[in-house]
Amino acid sequence: MRTPIVLAALAAAVAVSLAAASPAPSKSPRNVVADYAADTWRSFDMMLYPETGLVADNVSAEGVRARYTSPTNVGTYLWSTIAARDLGLITNAQAVARIDRTLDTVATLERHEESGQFYNWYDPQTGAKLTVWPADGSTVHPFLSSVDNGWLAAALVMVANAVPVHAAQARALYQSMHFGFYYDPGAGLIRGGAWPDQPPGCSVYDPAKDVYFTCHHYGAFNTEPRIASYIGIATGEIPATHYFKGWRTFPDTCDWSWQETKPDGVWRSYLGVDVFEGHYTYAGMNIVPSWGGSMFEALMVPLLVPEEQWGPDSWGVNHPLYVQAQIYHGKEEAGYGYWGFSPSNNPDGGYREYGVDPIGLEPNGYASDQERTFVDNGFEGCRPGAPPPDDYGRGVVTPHASFLALDWERGQALANLAKLRRNFDAYGTGGFYDAIDVVTGTVSRFYLALDQGMVMAAAANELTGDRLQGYFAGEIEAALRPLMAMEEFTAGPAGDGG
Predict the structure, then answer these.
(1) pTM of the shown model
(2) 350, exposed or middle or buried, with CB in 10 Å at 0-12, 13-18, 19+?
(3) N or C: the chain end with fewer CB closer than 10 Å?
């Protein structure tokens, strides 16, 4: 699906990709990925609180662990443990013992009784629900996140299917989590989450459920919350029509002219739902955008779900183009010489979203640089745009984004990683550090459970023929594959999107 403009722009990089595929040129790509996985697994030991079997949200290069963790972090540790076993980094007995400790703790965590949903933050050393933030003593308003619970639920399914001795315990926990809790029948969408007690700011009280929901729904389709949607559809708690309720792009009318750019597309109907099959055109490609243009929004879900196989006319077209857009932006448009933009630690401190602005719906959302350089294409007939940026600033690249691209551009991904490792102090005993300012060379010397979990999943899929993916995909295939198979995106080479 690559267009001539993209092929021309990337020709030089392709020519050197084999030579730069690994820090040790004599190693095969497979061995390089295996080495990365082995080192990445060490970071989980650095993050682990063995007394609970919970991992910290992050750990510094010096070994200082955070005193908070989330359902997503627990989930990434569970599937990374399975990956480590399947890759021979630990024995089956070791994996069983680790998972046993984690599940025993998960079973004791305080959660919302009616929905079975877990709260967003716990102390990994004790398992206590956090009401005070460890770093600054500020108040935490306990929150039930649809997407974070989705990743934990997916990991529990993987344990149930991959570790027979823990199948009953993992499945019981999974079945006690109800994702229909987040579904709003009026909108046909899921909410971002809920608070048991009224929080400051905007919320919507639901007297039937006695919780305060977020004011927003997850309306953009090509984003990571679809993992929760998939689970809800598969369990029958959310109707199949929900799959088609999310926006591919927002419509091409002036009422929606606040979005990043004016989309092109056509209306189609699936299961009685009218869907605007829209796309944005970027670098000679028609792409269904994510919310912010980041890698993990679009490509974390395919670590567990073979969307490109189940939806050959939708995800199968869009995913490889999305990777090409990231490569083009980093190497050609912004001229960083590197690519891979996704939420990560900020090398200057804290955490931030990074992305490729033109392939995100949010007009002022995820930039690729520290200066937040955005593109404003305007909206023909509704609002004017602005001239394109003259220059980009300090680009921030995160290695996990390259691992997410392995399925579609293995050579380019390994070449990018090798170049990052060669040119920056970007690699430690636990694998790649979280983010690199590729202009100043500043590195965020931390490991994040979320990002390392994506690396482990991508590496395990690459080395085992998608075995890790299979532990989850089989659970939802009967319900989701037919929905994906019937849809046709308008993604593809520019000019072919109708």
Answers:
(1) 0.93
(2) exposed
(3) C
